[in-house]
Amino acid sequence: MNGPSIAGRRTDGIAPIYTPEQRRRRDSSHWTVVQGVLAPVQFLVFLVSLALVLHYLASGRGAAAATISIVTKTGTLYAIMITGSIWEKTVFGKWLFADAFFWEDLSSMLVLALHSLYLVALIGGIGNERGRMLLALAAYASYAVNAAQFLLKLRAARLQGAVASSAMAMTR
Fold it and tell me: Could you give the C-alpha distances from 78 to 74, 106, 134, 154, in angstroms and in order?
């Protein structure tokens, strides 16, 4: 089966995330390390920002801190998206939407659009503070779903790698 599938499965079983050559490129790329560092940094920024946004929405205080945190979160998102695209080109030969990460990339576009919309609203003075904070929460909800997608993909890749290693060991 060519192209992405919603279930990520083929009729003959689970589609491998990486070919052996793609796994080699992934393991030898410094962009893999960059992604491995940026992902938890972005998640930490997200947690702090989420707390600040929720504090503002509950109390009406701390708008400046919440706003700075959202802009910081958006900056880390842009960084991980740009470096992730470079990583995908290095590993799969496509800047985005490689079959193995098609649905995660599609979801990432929504995340990026919502975060960017927040920046447009902030810079353009569109809406009020509360409305922009609610927009940030929508962006954060989409980010949480996207992060879960990537964590599931990472887990699947590790499981497939373990199975492949076991199969290779058994043939020796």
Answer: 6, 15, 20, 20
